[in-house]
């Protein structure tokens, strides 16, 4: 079954961004930024400090805040949000040819390090969402300041999750994707978490029992930790393939559920889709696919 959304697994989420931070910690920390080439001005969301101010400074750390990547450059922070179609491409030796705009994955930013290595930020497609910030404090980035708790942080306990869902008349799928509620989970891993928890994506958050919350919390933490562990140490170019290979239901509509063998189903929306297993998650009942219903009228 071709949903038209098969590439949504490609969008970077917490495990991939954590792995990219690991790549930068291993390869960029300790190096000096020689220069930065900005090719897509629209991607640059700040002007003070200027991106040129990173030149001559040493990279001292790399971290993740939800889906944001944070490169600490001697106290200044190059913060990157890859959005739907952005990616970081590492080069042990940057190409000698001058940067040229365009191509299948057009360049937005190139960072040159003093040993000739560096990385590109690219963004495919026509809908541009890649965002680059240069700030003195990561909290100066509005998206980071508004983030909910990190699901892999010690303070993200079952009790904390119980407080999050209490009184919220929202479908649990949407709640898990809300970065102001829980940081780092997107479309793909929310599908995976709910499959592990054997929970309908349409279940209303406020109806979760104490046992439901415990099961969901365990599914969130184990699913993300497993994905982070699988991605650790991989080259940036291998991360998308690892993510795809590790997904059990997301992007697999029409395939057999790896747990029970039932057919993975899909619900389509305007610009995305979710996948689930009816036998594992909804008592064997298919969820209404509003887009398909309209097509059948």
Automatic annotation (TrEMBL):
All copies of domain FPG-type, residue ranges: 248-282
UniProt keyword terms in alphabetical order: DNA damage, DNA repair, DNA-binding, Glycosidase, Hydrolase, Lyase, Metal-binding, Multifunctional enzyme, Zinc, Zinc-finger
Record has DNA damage as a keyword: yes
Reaction catalysis annotation: Hydrolysis of DNA containing ring-opened 7-methylguanine residues, releasing 2,6-diamino-4-hydroxy-5-(N-methyl)formamidopyrimidine
Highest taxon listed in the record's lineage: Bacteria
Gene3D superfamilies found in the cross-reference section: 1.10.8.50, MutM-like, N-terminal
Cofactor(s) for this UniProt protein: Zn(2+)
Gene Ontology BP annotations: base-excision repair
Keyword Protein transport set for record: no
Formamidopyrimidine-DNA glycosylase catalytic domain location: 12-103
GO MF annotations in UniProt: 8-oxo-7,8-dihydroguanine DNA N-glycosylase activity; class I DNA-(apurinic or apyrimidinic site) endonuclease activity; damaged DNA binding; zinc ion binding
InterPro entries from the UniProt entry: FPG_cat, FPG_N, H2TH_FPG, Ribosomal_uS13-like_H2TH, Znf_DNA_glyclase/AP_lyase, Znf_FPG/IleRS
Annotated EC: 4.2.99.18
Family that this chain belongs to: Belongs to the FPG family.
Protein known as: Formamidopyrimidine-DNA glycosylase
Gene: mutM
């Amino acid at each position: 079954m071709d949903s038209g959304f098969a590439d949504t697994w490609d969008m970077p989420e917490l495990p991939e961004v954590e792995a990219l931070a690991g790549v930068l910690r291993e390869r960029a920390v300790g190096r000096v930024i020689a220069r930065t080439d900005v090719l897509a001005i629209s991607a640059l969301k700040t002007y003070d400090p200027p991106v040129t101010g990173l030149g001559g400074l040493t990279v001292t750390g790399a971290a993740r805040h939800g889906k944001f990547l944070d490169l600490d450059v001697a106290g200044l922070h190059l913060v990157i949000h890859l959005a739907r179609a952005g990616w970081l491409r590492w080069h042990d030796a940057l190409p000698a040819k001058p940067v040229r705009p365009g191509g299948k994955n057009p360049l937005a930013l190139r960072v040159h390090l003093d040993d000739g290595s560096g990385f590109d930020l690219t963004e495919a497609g026509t809908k541009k969402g890649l965002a680059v910030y240069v700030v003195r404090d990561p909290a100066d980035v509005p998206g980071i300041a508004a983030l909910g708790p990190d699901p892999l942080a010690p303070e993200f306990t079952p009790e904390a999750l119980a407080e999050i869902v209490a009184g919220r008349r929202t479908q649990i799928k949407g709640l898990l994707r809300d970065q102001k509620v829980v940081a780092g989970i997107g479309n793909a891993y929310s599908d995976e978490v709910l499959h592990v928890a054997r929970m309908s994506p349409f279940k209303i958050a406020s109806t979760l029992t104490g046992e439901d919350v415990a099961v969901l919390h365990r599914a969130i933490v184990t699913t993300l930790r497993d994905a982070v562990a699988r991605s650790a140490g991989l080259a940036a170019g291998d991360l998308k393939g690892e993510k795809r290979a590790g997904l059990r239901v997301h992007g697999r509509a029409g395939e057999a559920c790896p747990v029970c063998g039932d057919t993975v189903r899909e619900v389509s929306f305007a610009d995305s889709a979710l996948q689930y297993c009816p036998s594992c998650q909804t008592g064997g009942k298919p969820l209404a696919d509003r887009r398909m219903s309209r097509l059948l009228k």
